[in-house]
Amino acid sequence: MATMKDISRLAGVSLSTVSHVINNSRFVSEEIRERVEKVVRELNYTPSLVARSLKVKETNTLGMLVTASRNPFFAEVVQHVERYCERHNYHLILVNTNGDPQMLAKHLDHLLRKQVDGLLLMCAEPQDLDDPQLANIPLPKVIIDWWQQPLNADKIHENSELGGYLATKTLLNAGYQEIAIITGELSKPLAVNRLAGYKRAFAEQNLPLRAEWIVESRFDYQGGLAAATQLLALPHRPQAIFAMSDTIAIGAYQAIWRAGLRIPQDIAVIGYDNIEIAEFLSPPLSTIHQPKARLAKNAVERLIQRIREPNTPVQTIQLEPTLVVRESFLPKFSKI
């Protein structure tokens, strides 16, 4: 495998000059740049991301890598991350994969060229992320919510099992017993945990689960629309729907409207995340509030601590969700 020393020897320039050309870190004359780049092409040289990540000083810059999602939850978390970076006098560089796993290496390369001091990682939906480069980069890393690849990194997430339990228990306490659930992808641990919370609430009241009322979908509007349409077409439709995200709930709202039904008179809905638009729906959506600001605050502060104290044990910090009651279900439900 070719090295920068090989390029230096064949191009007849110093090792530092090769580094400046590859990293675009200092002016190099066009003649020398072309000579170095010609050797790079001939040797099919690929710069080592790991080597690039080794720094001699901090830059007070954090990188944040987010996989693309239409779920506003992630955009709201990023806004809070930016705010807390600014409070701690850190600059944030945000990149996302645009749903393309092949962009991962490109964006990592971009962040490492900028000599970020640490990485914040947030994965939206399951994707084909099998590239080991990220795991091999010796930079401090903190995962917000979830990351698909196993990494030796600190993690900040919410108690998703409790959130699923709270949503279901709230509907049960309001008098609903026939409650369907629309899940996100069950390859995502938080979806599995929220489903476990749903099942726990039913078990506490010795109520049977109906398999046709447990529908796996996606954490997006179309997923909610398709799954709710499926539920409403059943011979015995449920009294209420627990949607595992507010985006799923919004899709369910559309399906219910298309079916000529009313929320909450004909069917109740409770969501998850408490995104900003939830309170502006008609009717306003009851939902489980994910502590987005606290997720961001803990992630930024934990990453800064990890940068300053790199040898401390890896930590997992779990935050507690809360219930936000609005008008999408009827207290002490009775058909009207």
UniProtKB/TrEMBL annotation:
The keyword DNA-binding applies. Pfam families: LacI, Peripla_BP_3. Residues 2-56 form the HTH lacI-type domain. One of its GO terms (molecular function) is DNA-binding transcription factor activity. The keyword Transmembrane does not apply. Keywords: DNA-binding, Transcription, Transcription regulation. PROSITE patterns: HTH_LACI_2. PANTHER family: LACI-RELATED TRANSCRIPTIONAL REPRESSOR (PTHR30146), RIBOSE OPERON REPRESSOR (PTHR30146:SF145). This is Transcriptional repressor PurR. It comes from Haemophilus paracuniculus.
